[in-house]
Model the fold of this input.
Amino acid sequence: MKKNMLTKAVIGICVAVLSLAGCGSGGSAANQGQVLNIGSQMSSFPSLDTGAITSAGYEGQRLIGNLVYEGLTKRDISNPDAAAGVAPALAESWSVSDSGLEYTMKLRKGVTFHDGDKWNSDALIYNINRYTKPDDPNYDKTLLTYYTVLTYVDHVEKVDDYTVKFVLKEPFAFFLADLYNVYFASPKSLKEHGSKGQASHPVGTGPFVFDSLQANQSITFSKNNKYWGTVPKLDKIVVQLIPDASARTAALRSGRVDWIEGAQPDDLASLKQAGFVVTQNAFDWEWSWQLYTSEDGPLANKKVRQALNYAIDREAICKDLLHGTAQPATQFFAPASLYYDKSDDTYTYDLNKAKQLLQEAGYPNGFEMKVGYITAGSGAMQPKAMNEALQAQLAKVGVKVTFDPVDFSTMYGKLAEGNTGWDAANQAFSLEQPSSWSWSMGSKEEGGYFDYRNEQFDELWKKALVTTDDKERASLLTQAGRVATDDAPWLFVCHDTAPRAMSARVKGFVQPKSWWIEFNDVYIE
Done:
């Protein structure tokens, strides 16, 4: 009898320990059914109103915006081994006039907003007017700053209930591609609750419906059972704010979450050993220092900028520090980019060449520079460790680097205001949208944060924006990248592979060559 009681007690203790541990099987998922808990890198939630979600970067779009809202197009990630292209979404098909000025779009039928309002030509025009017409009651000039693609639009014509024609002011080759995140909100919701209502309770057509928001903690979405496409297998997605990388790993191990963004490279081996699944894939993601090249000082000299690029050991950072979760950046474009040409790979680790270039530029003993960097957030990778590694490497050629670490929103606030007091800013972003390069590669007059000026680059880039032939446009952008590589307006460091870690119970996810991901086929086993 005593033996049986002892056996039951031991079993009870083991069950309790296993329940608390979570382990690779995913404790939270086991108890909650088809609920996916995600640990996000975001430090705060953005406004939930359409374009404003973009202020949280690509992570805000993929974990919030793309769940609730949709655009006329979307990223095509049907082939995980190919760079993302353009696919239909709320627009079923389209045709383009020979002049490149008219885009006639057939809208998808049978689509409703989460509140039952119909998706049709009137709903589209209502939203476009809201973004572009100052006399619209829900106009917010801030939203248009996120949707520069709409500045090319002269007007929109209703052809019939499910056909519209966009008439552009000038040809714009990336019009279809850039419509992907021009999100559409329910006209009924906007009429009843206005922009403020949309910011706190978003109503779109997406595969998930907004459920609830716990300020500075989590946001919950429920399955849209009336979704026009593949209805999600998950009942709910809960996105939790866990900006600290170590805390995200701990949350995964404990079973608090089933999936983490931005998994720490140091943790990947032990997570795999514990039964968790790690996914990653090379894509067009730039982790770099953007240099202030137009101001007086060392960085105005091309030889100095080239010297910095020869002075850093990218291989060591990618292999030793990041454990193979990144690729060395030896030119402007990532190998996963549509515009990459291997023959343009330029920068290797060459201290002698770096010192020679600094000597020729008149800085044989180096110089001092200050760098602002984002401490956490969308695509930030391991910012403190990576920047400190660069600091140590540049010190070998006499360049003394100091840092100003800031959060995600502060970074872009300071860049927009100007007068940062920095010589460079460390950010991470994608170059897949050439139409959005203005802020990183344009002059101040064009909205460029770094006032970069290179006539040859500008000519090639701007010609590409109006070239409708795909091959010709790609060739122009490859040439523009070649010019930028030589001119070195950035310290080219690495390309992320977006390592994620998740419970072995999470199924149906295949990581694409893109920051864009979809959850419709994901489920908990």
Summary: Residues 1-23, 25-31 have pLDDT under 50 and may be disordered. Residues 285-496 form a domain with the Dipeptide-binding Protein; domain 3 fold (CATH 3.10.105.10). Residues 86 and 371 are 36 Å apart (CA to CA).
